[in-house]
Amino acid sequence: MVAFPPCPPEALAAAEAACGGTVDLKELTNRRGSAVWKAVGPEGTVAVKIGYDDGVAATLREATTLAAMGLAEYEAVSGSYDGGSWLVTPWFTGPSTWAVFTPTREGTGGREAALRGGADLCRSVADLHASGWIHADLQPSHGIHTPAGVRLIDFAWSWREGEEPVSGFSGGIVHLMAPELAAAVARGDGPVTPTRSSDTYALAGVLWTCASGGWPLDYKAAGIDRKAAGPDGVRDAIATGRLPFAPAVWPELQDALRPALAAVPEDRPTAGELAELLLKVEP
């Protein structure tokens, strides 16, 4: 396990300014050169993220993206320290999409709430697309379900339509990568350009994973040993667009998701249309 780095004084000072005084720091995650804390103070709560080693550029990118978006609910403070970069953002209170679906995965109910939560996540992605942005790294933990609606997080790879592709982007988490992105990465086209359609593919994959606990494609049925193939081999298989879907554990929901997981981008619904499909599913 990688030791949790200390919180830089500059980031700590920014967190204390935002929270109205001394904060308690709770370690949350530390991986791939990015560490995150929850900072709780007398007048508020924020998230503190630092980038070090390979994570410096990602934290800087996310800070730049949040500033360009200009959304009040994502008001952020950022900077650099000796050895890395830091970012302080509002703390969104609520469960992740993965947590919203936990009762359904455990077979204890909650399907109606999961469908509402899934539709809310789709609408949040649709709103992002309407503003001209692509998230490009949707994952089960990247949507927080607050009383005011779903708030997306982790914008390090997000891209504004019409601008140059983000240098170094390689398609996101491989199991949620749309076939056209996987094919572009396999060809060495980089930097790869995400689209609204590839976001919708990942969105449907996230919801499939949250409902079933497994990835949406059935590698075993396709004769693929994931360990032997490695990430590149899995990616190349996804690029064919011919892998079968994993067995359904909630057929009605997963049938609604299948169109968004189509191999051909033009055959997929939009994120907003996917929300409507989910609301038609019987709990």
TrEMBL record:
Q: Name one GO molecular function term.
A: ATP binding
Q: Where is the Protein kinase domain?
A: 1-283
Domain of life, per lineage: Bacteria
**What is this protein's record name?**
Protein kinase domain-containing protein
Q: Which organism is it from?
A: Streptomyces capillispiralis
